[in-house]
Amino acid sequence: MNDIARTGALAPEPVTQEKLESFWMPFTSNRQFKSQPRLLARAEGMYYYTPEGRQILDGTAGLWCVNAGHCRKPIVDAIAQAAGSLDFSPTFQMGHPMAFELSSRLVALAGQPFNHVFFCNSGSEAVDSALKIALGYHRVRGEGQRTRFIGRERGYHGVGFGGISVGGMAANRKMFGTMLPGVDHLPQTWNLKETAFSRGQPAWGAHLADELERIIALHDASTIAAVIVEPVAGSAGVLVPPKGYLERLRAITEKHGILLIFDEVITGFGRVGKAFGWQRFGVAPDLYTTAKGINSGTVPMGAVFARSGIYEAFMQGPASAIEFAHGYTYSAHPLACAAALATLDVYAGEGLFERAAELESHWEAALHSLKGVRNVIDVRNIGLMGAIELEPRAGAAGARGFDVHCQAFFEEGLLVRFTGDILAMSPPLIVSRNQIDEIVERLRRVLERVE
User: Mean pLDDT per segment of 10 residues, for the chain of length 451 residues?
Assistant: First the structure.
């Protein structure tokens, strides 16, 4: 892009081994990392740069979030202007104009049936907020006995206690006790035998949604508040919903008066070729969560979208009463709002959601060209999301994926995300066809030499 912000900031001090020690890094093998650091010092467009100036092609949009590309000048300028004019404003019993402007634009982007947005600061907070909205909604309607949640195996919904409770990733749950009570899980939808190398939505698997009827019969529908799933399970390795699966979940939840929540923290803001995943799949939930791409990852922000009737159900009692006792100090932070407004302008002005849709077939063909490469047992894709699944090494699950990640970074100048033996990719929406080809060819070279 030709509008990359160049702030002229001084290069950071070198990171010595002593400085590495004090940071307890999240979701990281800390000891391994500190023995072989993978450091990023600046970013521009489609690229990161190491402290030594080595260029790294970003195949993951940071962490599924930098949808508009790195250091876009309109977004950087908007943040700087906000920081210099309104550094912070409370939104408890107060407000600032950008919060209302942003919520109006987001509701317009979503369209019917959504008419309200609740702001927070991350995907994890968005999930916990959505779960609390669901509980509160049933309570204010006189159905306070609806307290159960249904998640899904291999689902990822952030790291709050609510999110890991409804989530289905064992490694994220095993250390933290019993978590929330009253949670059950649908089966996950990926099956190597039935769905390997599917292009887009697999034809097999819609029947797995019917398991929800069994779970409802076990607990009784009158006790269940909501079902929460990702339209596409991103952090588990781009598990694409089977054809008809989401439609079946919607029909079952509507039949039993259960809310359906989509976690769109990854699929939101153009990642699957529409503003939101529910629009791509033609299935409208009751609530959905967003974060990441809401402002291209520049300032922490999240949001919950609520369909018509949910906000209105809370508007009872005296006008001076607080209708929903929930929120965060930094909800609708001015800098985050400024960044989001500028990001929406970039998305619209450059047609980035439409660009993602146009590039999908090229992305799909490039990824699936890796079929037959050594150790590749599956390729999955939808929108500008993709995953390459590798055969695990005997007795060392995840080791091959980690080695590919490291060799890609150090030897090919490529950033890919690994989750176990799955390599996940989600480039910024500004990616070109040539850069898609480059991502895949660099990855191919690594795969061909990693044992």
Answer: 61 79 95 95 98 97 98 98 98 98 98 98 98 98 98 98 97 94 97 98 98 98 98 97 98 98 98 98 98 98 98 96 97 98 98 98 98 98 98 97 96 97 98 98 98 93
DSSP readout, 280-318? HHT---SEEEE-GGGGTTSS--EEEEEETTHHHHH--S-
Q: What residues are paired with 302 via a beta bridge?
A: 120
Unique residue bearing structure tokens 């919950």:
304
Query: What does the radius of gyration of the chain's CA atoms come to, in whole angstroms?
Result: 22
**What token pair was written down for 6?**
């160049």
**9 burial via Cβ count (<10 Å: 0-12, 13-18, 19+):** exposed
Handedness of CA 45, 46, 48, 54 (dihedral sign): negative
- 430 closest CA partner among 281, 297, 270: 270
Contact 191, 154 (CB under 8 A): no
Name residues whose C-beta falls within 8 Å of residue 294's C-beta, 6 or more positions apart in sequence.
Answer: 268, 269, 301, 302, 303, 340, 343
Are 195 and 377 within 8 A, CB to CB?
Answer: no
Phi, psi of 226 (to 5 degrees): -160, 155
Of 305, 235, 253, 237, whose CA–CA distance to 276 is shortest? 305
DSSP codes, 186-244: EPP---HHHHTT-SSS-SS-GGGGGHHHHHHHHH-GGGEEEEEE-SSBTTTT-BPPPTT
Is residue 21 within 8 A of residue 30, CB to CB? The reply is: no
Cα angle vertex 172, ends 138, 427, to 5°? Answer: 95
What is d(CA 351, CA 334) in angstroms, rounded to the nearest whole number? 25
- Cα separation, 170 vs 213, in Å, equals 24
